[in-house]
Predict the structure.
Amino acid sequence: MSVAGSSLASMESRPARHPQLRTLVCPACGERGLLKPLLWGMPDESFDHGKYESGGCLPPSSMPPDCRCTGCGQDWYRDGVSGFNN
Ligand SMILES: [Zn+2]
């Protein structure tokens, strides 16, 4: 007797259309590759804490920061960090 049809693990991979955060330098601590995407809202069981940072259930504003440095803990707007590449 075999049990089939348990598809709990559905890998969802979205194409990245924004600048790679790992290539950006944190303006505060100057480290490269420590920025992670910052997601707002209640994280569910599929939330990947290795890839993303959880900002919390409620965004602090209508335009909350969208990335966080895991080195110094500072939140950033990706567009703002992009300008600090050089
Ligand atoms: Zn930093």
Q: What stands out?
A: The two ends are 62 Å apart (CA to CA).
